[in-house]
Fold these 2 entries.
Entry 1:
Amino acid sequence: MVGSIIPSWRYLVNKIIKQIDFKKDNVIVEFGPGTGAFTFKLIKKLEENSKLFVFELNEAFYNNLKSKISDPRVILINDSAEKIGKYLAIHNLSKADVIISSLPLTNLSEEIRLSIVNNAYTSLKQKGKFIQYQYSSTAKELLMNTYKEVKILYTIINMPPAIIYVCEK
């Protein structure tokens, strides 16, 4: 369930955050926030009318985030990222503008990995972005076969160094 034993460094967080246009991207989803390295930065950048859906399956991480976040724009969800469509619908939203995934896709079964990537794709608006970072290139083929456009960025100033996939629907 955990992709790294230490939180993402600010260089990785900032490089990913730069991919989001907070003026127009009002529905943002985060998969696997862990300790909240991205979450707290996202909250600072959110517009007043934005929503941030945060999916954390690990109950200890979820409870930690729940104790620290009281922002009404943030919807914390202790459930699988596979259920993104269900939670968007509950909040009367049809699509997300951006999905950021910190999930360790390599560590997941093929069935769950495919389900998460496919449900994310279905839940994104046209031209929406799915941003996935990994510590290996194992997700590359899956993402290139799913999305129209995949831009690959690297952050060597992180432990471990990370590959960032910025995918556009």
Entry 2:
Amino acid sequence: MRRRYCRRLPRNKTILFQQTKKTWAALLVQAFFNSIGAWTVLAWGQQFVDSGLARVLNSTSPVFVFFMTLLWTRHESVDIAKFVGAMLGLAGVILLMGVDALEGLGREVLAQLAILLSALLYACAAVYGRRFAALPSAISAAGTMIWASIWLIPIACFIDQPWRLHIEHSALLAALALSVFSTAGALLIYFRLVKTIGSIGVASQSYLRSAVAVLVGIAVLGESFSWSLACGVIAVLTGMYFLNGGLMAFRKRA
């Protein structure tokens, strides 16, 4: 028995190493979809596209996830209700940003395509991220951010040369808040939601971000309220309701 155990131990170590290696490779792919590629093309495209139109274009992730699931992966159920939800959510974002935001369509084609590409990469991340269901959310989030840091920090140092920039303390505090709450904390929630509500459901948060931003602007910054904003929020919430399976899904989770 002791000899048999000694013979199997190196093999088990080899299998564990191979599994760990595959996990890190998969996390690199996830980091490219979720961070490295998506952030890079989005940051470049936003330099040439108005913020409202950029928000609309970047909110198309649920539409991409819907058609990727329908035509390719089929890893979760899709139906006409979820398609209606995706369209309603997108219409809600357009109302929130203002219909005038669409006037810039076709002017900076490459930049707009770059923003659409970022939405597609986010959609790929939502679909690909389901393979980490067996891992704790903290490990998936940490692995993704480690790979993103390994790639993006050297690239940023080479291109932007931050040591030559004059950075104000307020900008550093804003960057710290974004990194802790909007990136690290958000990724923890993100991978948890991938396990519980699926790819289409987690992608629908791109609609919700616009609604929350508008409501926070009204409550905190005193921005003006209009009926178009109210209709946009209702459309976003209704779209998310359908995208997440409607009333039956909420009853099952309860």
